[in-house]
Amino acid sequence: MGRTNNSMFNVNKFKLGVFSPNCSGGMAVTKVPERWDASWENNLKLATMLDDAGIEFILPIARWTGYGGETDFQGSNLETITWATGLLAATQKITVFATAHASFHHPIVAAKMFATMDQVSAGRFGLNIVCGWNKHEYDMFNMALPDSHDVRYGYGQEWYDIIRRIWTAEEEFDWSGEYFNLRHVYGNPKPAHGEMPPIMNAGSSDQGQDFAARNADYLFTVLIDLESGKQNVLSIKEKAKGHGRDIGVFTTSYVVCRPTQQEAENYHNYYANEQADWPAVDRLMELQGLHAKSFPPEAFTLFRNRFAAGHGVYPLVGDPDHIADEMAKIHEAGFSGTTITFVNYTDEFPYFRDEVLPRLEAKGLRVPVS
Ligand SMILES: Cc1cc2nc3c(=O)[nH]c(=O)nc-3n(C[C@H](O)[C@H](O)[C@H](O)COP(=O)(O)O)c2cc1C
């Protein structure tokens, strides 16, 4: 693995990305007035802050409709390919991912768009591939979401194989597969420096993890607790080894960082309990439980509050020492890094930057921005 000019391959042992700022509410299913407004202005301001602070990447959620409730959680969502292109043009160092549903973008169009984004940024584009889970959104497109994970990921594999072939082929080619029949296919320019952009995938089913093991540089996985997370990392890395590949594993967490533990816990209780948008939480949990395997079944009964606080992902709630210590534990469990989210990204990131990043540097997990 390696790539010219792409921060996903830098020296930091524990990498950080910011997740979901393109969606209203971000990852917090809450009614508090300061909840995230996913306007372009806010996204641009955030991306500039992250770029200056040496954060490795920004990762959007590809969403086509919201979850309802009082706030219509994630109901306003900037389209990730055009969003990422704008941010890549406006930043200097950070990797910006697009999140693409294989089913919704023809692979010839997708290969061209992604190569263009990589040219715009001289190699800072990353691709997060989604093979489908949200039936409600598939209905919107009048497309059937296949029940079988074999079909979902089989289609995704063919889609990505075509893109990769376009990115490397010097001559036109024909494609005759199970899902695509294409004639004299070609695409130029290729991605920058003639190198493959970093690929991320968040499959959770056996088929999903196998897809990541075969194709991705990084797998995203939900962390329920550190012990099971550690086992998960080992098993995924083993799977990738079976394909002669090395893979990094990221997890995803939400951050409430305040000067004292008590202040952090109070705010957490306020936004994710007293002011939670419960109808939206229930809708989110229902859809996740029905069609995806991101969360084990017990997570839905144990972690209703986690869904309100951060879409079900791992909580990092406390003072700066606590947050840095928890991140060190995630690193020790074998993860390459984590994404982070905040109730209000631009209000809360500066405190995280000023207090937590130096602590991670002191632990030897990151180096200061030069
Ligand atoms: C960190 C993370 C990010 C994801 N991003 C998206 C996304 O942006 N859009 C989407 O529709 N699904 C997204 N998913 C869902 C996954 O791509 C996948 O469909 C889901 O985890 C179910 O896995 P399975 O299909 O293997 O059961 C994400 C999942 C995780 C854990």
Mind explaining what this structure looks like?
44% of the residues lie in helices and 15% in strands. Strand 1, helix 1 and strand 2 form a beta-alpha-beta unit. The longest helix is centred in the middle third of the chain and has 20 residues. The strands form two sheets. The protein has an eight-stranded parallel β-barrel with strand order 1-2-3-4-7-8-9-11, surrounded by eight helices. Strands 5-6 form a two-stranded antiparallel sheet. It is an alpha/beta fold and 370 residues long. It has one domain: TIM Barrel (Alpha-Beta Barrel). It contains 13 helices and eleven strands. Helix 1 packs parallel to helix 13, helix 5 packs parallel to helix 6 and helix 12 packs across helix 13. The protein is globular, with a radius of gyration of 20 Å. The site of flavin mononucleotide has 19 residues, from loops.
